[in-house]
Amino acid sequence: MNLTCDVESGKPPALMEWKNRNVVVATGGPASLIYTFIPNVTNHLQSLMCIAFNNVTRITLTKRVTLHLYFEPTVKIIPSGHIHIIENEALLLDCNYTSNDNWNTSVIWKYTTDGHITYTANKKLKLDNIKRNDAGHYTCFVSNSAGEAEDSVIVNVLYPPRTPANIKAFTQSDIILVKWTADYDIGLQKTIFVEYRKHYESRWNQVSAVNRSTVIINGLDPGTIYLLRLYSTTAGGESNKTDEIIVKTGSRRLCPQYSR
Predict the structure, then answer these.
(1) SS3 content of the chain, % helix, strand, coil (to 5)
(2) Cβ within 8 Å of residue 188, ≥6 positions away
(3) Which residues form the Ig-like domain (predicted)?
(4) Which pLDDT tens digit goes with each residue over 34-57?
(5) Whole-prediction pTM value?
(6) pLDDT exceeds 80 at position 68
(7) What is the per-residue pLDDT across 165-191, written as a single tens digit (0 to 9) for each?
(8) How far apart are CA 182 and CA 69, in angstroms?
(9) What does the pLDDT read at residue 82?
(10) Dihedrals φ, ψ of 43, to 5°?
(11) What pLDDT band is residue 202 in, cutting at 50, 70 and 90?
(12) Are strands 147-158 and 82-86 parallel, antiparallel or unpaired?
């Protein structure tokens, strides 16, 4: 930055100086004096003074200038990082920024929904009833006359898993081996719960398997009819339960019994 001070010099020619906080930072003259420096945050709102004088008339002329510096903005999205949200909940993101150039500051959100890039000019971004196809990167851009800044977060929309399918049950006298097909492509830990009870009882017992597709139920009574049903859970919720499956423990030979 150059600060130039001009004066109509007399006789003898004037001496000139620039002062910052009463410290002489440049001297020269007689008609003009340039003070060159690189401004930083400490110079904001500082008052500098140009002084012109000669040693004969002892007349001193002064002129002050106040520096108002514009800085590049800073920006931080709140909440930050990786955001996990349940499908159909409301997503609220705040583009928290600093800028001392309010007249020339703009805020733009960029994100993708339904495969289309969307731009929104608001400090806060709210999506009611967020859907799984709203997942992805959300970026806030802030700009002013001095520059621009941006921040991004990744939104992961969690949703309930599908109900276990293709269920098969194999029995022996005191065990039931249960197999199923599950969708493990959702990227979340998935727990399968197998509930079972004797056909004449009302209370359900339960065993579980994490990220597996088989489970063994032990300690059953031989020659007894059991009812089975399955469901799965993730951080995104719980699936529907399957229809009840009827199996009967019996011989030692392992025989398959299929869901209806």
Answers:
(1) 5, 55, 40
(2) 158, 161, 234, 235, 236
(3) 1-66, 73-156
(4) 999 998 888 888 999 999 988 777
(5) 0.69
(6) yes
(7) 999 999 999 999 999 987 666 567 789
(8) 60
(9) 95
(10) -85, -10
(11) very high
(12) parallel
Q: Is there a cis peptide before residue 12, judged by omega within 30 degrees of 0? A: yes
ω into 79 cis (within 30 of 0): yes
Distance CA 166, CA 178 (A): 10
How many CB atoms sit inside 10 A of residue 10's CB? Answer: 13
Rounded distance, CA 140 to CA 111, Å?
9
Residue 134 has a CB neighbour count (10 Å cut-off) of 19
DSSP states of 199-213 as a string? TT--PPEEEEEES-S
CB 15 within 8 A of CB 53: yes
DSSP conformation letters of 238-259: EPPPPPPEEEE---SS-EEEE-
The amino acid occupying position 232 is: S
